[in-house]
Write a structure and sequence with these properties.
Keywords: ANK repeat, Repeat. The protein contains 17 helices and four strands. The N and C termini lie far apart (107 Å). The protein has three domains: 110 residues, Ankyrin repeat-containing domain (Serine Threonine Protein Phosphatase 5, Tetratricopeptide repeat); 103 residues, Ankyrin repeat-containing domain (Serine Threonine Protein Phosphatase 5, Tetratricopeptide repeat, Alpha Horseshoe), CATH 1.25.40; 82 residues, Ankyrin repeat-containing domain (Serine Threonine Protein Phosphatase 5, Tetratricopeptide repeat). The chain has 362 residues and is an alpha+beta fold. Helix 1 packs across helix 2 and helix 8 runs parallel beside helix 10. The radius of gyration is 31 Å and the shape is elongated.
Length: 362
């Protein structure tokens, strides 16, 4: 029996794996690795782990630790022989790669990089270690990978989308700091931006940060769904409120099926959104011309003190138009007479500006 070296490059390669509770008596898992150099096997091991792993991730992590120690020793040994290894290849399943990231152990990631691991390697699906780091929310590992020169592929990588899914505004900020050319409005296979993803999940802090970085709150996907369509459909009250403050006209956008965000909220029974998406507008219109329509809005539960984009309430509008009956109806149903609009005017001052002095007697 002898070692056979092929006519291959003098490069160190590793094959590693583990099982889960393969020992039926002690329930211990097994770790195994095989290192080759220039095509010939130079180091191998297969043995039971010293402790009982409670998950496949833990079993893979233990195997990774054993492999990493052997890897570092072999690298230094080859360097003494004048065969310095700039990088090496680790052949493993997805669980092995994932466990390095999912454990959040940035020290081990650093050790692998120091040993020559290629941080820009991608699997057959185009997934990278950075993808795993972002998806698992391990900000320390993301920081390490950025510092050591991970190269983003804008045609594949959707790291902002991944961070939006897990509601990590801090991770999103780090990605912007680490990748100056990252596109805040990049889209996925469905035409959705990272803002769409945040809206679907109701992650307001991520929405707020992305908008501050130039994200388009009026963006539509391939089905003509806006961020507001998704937030309203899922019943995310705070997200809907934020998006309406970003764009007062997005509530009138219709998707491919001709539905507004309000229509979707009605379909899903999110009655707490009716006021923001529809009833408030209807009340403001009715306050100027139609007392009966205004009373209908009140019966449906409209917020009588809701403001428009200029800070006007329905009472401001009715007062400015001199609609005495409308003013009385609003006040009797809880409208506040001392609220200030965007210009610092109360409803009474708007009435005076409109030449309706008689309203001072109501």
């Amino acid at each position: 029996m002898c070692l056979c070296f092929r006519d291959a490059k003098p490069v160190l390669e590793d094959y590693t794996d583990s099982d889960m509770a393969g020992d039926l008596d002690g329930r211990k898992s097994a770790s195994g690795f095989l290192f080759t150099f220039a095509g010939g096997a130079v180091s191998w091991q297969s043995k039971l782990q010293k402790c009982v792993a409670l998950s496949t991730t833990e079993a893979e992590y233990i195997a990774a630790a054993e492999t990493g120690k052997e890897m570092l020793w072999l690298k230094r040994f080859l360097q003494e022989l004048g065969l310095k290894q700039e990088k090496f290849t680790v052949h493993c399943d997805n669980n092995f790669s994932g466990c390095l990231i999912l454990t959040g152990n940035s020290y081990f990631v650093l050790a692998l990089i120091d040993a020559g691991a290629d941080i820009n390697h991608r699997d057959s699906n185009g997934q990278s270690v950075m993808s795993l780091a972002v998806q698992s929310g391990n900000i320390d590992s993301v920081q390490v990978l950025i510092e050591y020169g991970f190269v983003i592929d804008h045609s594949i990588d959707r790291f902002l989308h991944d961070a939006a899914v897990i509601d990590r505004a801090d991770l999103t900020e780090l990605l912007f700091l680490g990748f100056a050319d990252i596109d805040v409005n990049s889209i996925d296979s469905q035409g959705r931006t990272a803002l769409h993803v945040a809206a679907i999940h109701g992650h307001v802090e991520v929405l707020r940060f992305l908008v501050s970085m130039g994200g388009d709150p009026d963006a539509v996907d391939y089905n003509r769904w806006t961020l507001l369509h998704y937030a309203a459909s899922e019943g995310h009250h705070e997200a809907v409120e934020f998006l309406l403050n970003c764009s007062m006209f997005v509530k009138y956008s219709v998707n491919e099926d001709g539905k507004t965000a309000f229509a979707l909220a009605v379909e899903k029974g999110h009655s707490d959104l009716y006021n923001m998406l529809h009833l408030g507008d209807a009340l403001h219109r009715a306050a100027r011309i139609d007392v009966h329509a205004m009373k209908s809005c009140i019966v449906e539960g409209v917020n009588v003190n809701g403001k428009d984009q200029n800070g006007w309430t329905a009472l401001h509008r009715a007062a400015f138009k001199g609609r005495i009956e409308s003013d009385k109806t609003l006040v009797s149903n809880g409208a506040q007479i001392d609220l200030l609009d965007g210009g610092g005017y109360t409803p009474l001052r708007r009435a005076v500006k409109g030449g309706h002095m008689q309203l001072q007697c109501i």
